[in-house]
Amino acid sequence: MEFTDGASQVILPEAPLPGEALPSVDNNPQIEQQWAVTACAHADTYLKLISTFKDHKSLRLTKIDEEIYTSFRALFPKVRVDTIDEDEMKSPESKKIWAPFLESFKTKVDLYNFLTLLRKDSTGDYSEHNTIVVPRVQFFCFEIARLREGHNSNIRL
């Protein structure tokens, strides 16, 4: 499904980088609904993928999984990926580190800052209490690490 602005221009919401101010725009319910449909479809597809794929360590989410993972772990070696501390991840100190890191993938990952749903606890499903919204590259960091480090092995539909 493709969403357009009426002039054949695809509309995809992008997130400001951590630490950047949100743009001052009026909320457009139609765009918000389009984003919600896209984000939920992505989350559903991802959950089906990891619940049916047996060998998580060999599963690839992007063409540059190795680069994303090694860069993430080099910069954030002690960050827990099984359960995410949202307050810590979105703290002013963390945002100063995350912003340039995410920006470094601008030309390497399509829609690198597209708002994406991420499960806070890797053992659970997407739900109101277990889901946060993050830029796409941040989603890849956590989910690639979860796959490689064995944190998604309990997911079954």
What can you see in these coordinates?
With 157 residues, the protein is mainly alpha-helical. The protein is built from 5 helices and 2 strands. The protein has helices at residues 29-52, 65-75, 86-89, 92-103, 136-148, and strands spanning 115-119, 131-135. A two-stranded antiparallel sheet has the order 1-2. The chain is globular. Residues 1-11 have low confidence and may be disordered.
Please give a quick description of this structure.
This protein has 5 helices and 2 strands, in the order H-H-H-H-E-E-H. The chain is mainly α and 157 residues long.
Give the SSE layout.
Blueprint: H1 29-52, H2 65-75, H3 86-89, H4 92-103, E1 115-119, E2 131-135, H5 136-148
Describe this protein with a few key phrases.
disordered N terminus, 2 strands, two-stranded antiparallel sheet, mainly alpha, single chain, 5 helices, 157 residues, 41% helix
Strand content: 5-15%
Query: Helicity, in percent?
Result: 40-55%
Total strands: the figure is 2
Q: Report the total helices.
A: 5
Sequence of strands across the biggest β-sheet? 1-2
Query: What value does the average pLDDT take?
Result: 84
- Major sheet attributes: 2 strands, antiparallel
Secondary structure class reads mainly alpha
Morphology: globular
Q: Which regions have little confidence, pLDDT < 50, spanning 5+ residues?
A: 1-11
Rg estimate, integer Å: 16 Å
Euclidean distance between termini CA atoms: 24 Å
Order of helix and strand elements from N to C terminus = HHHHEEH
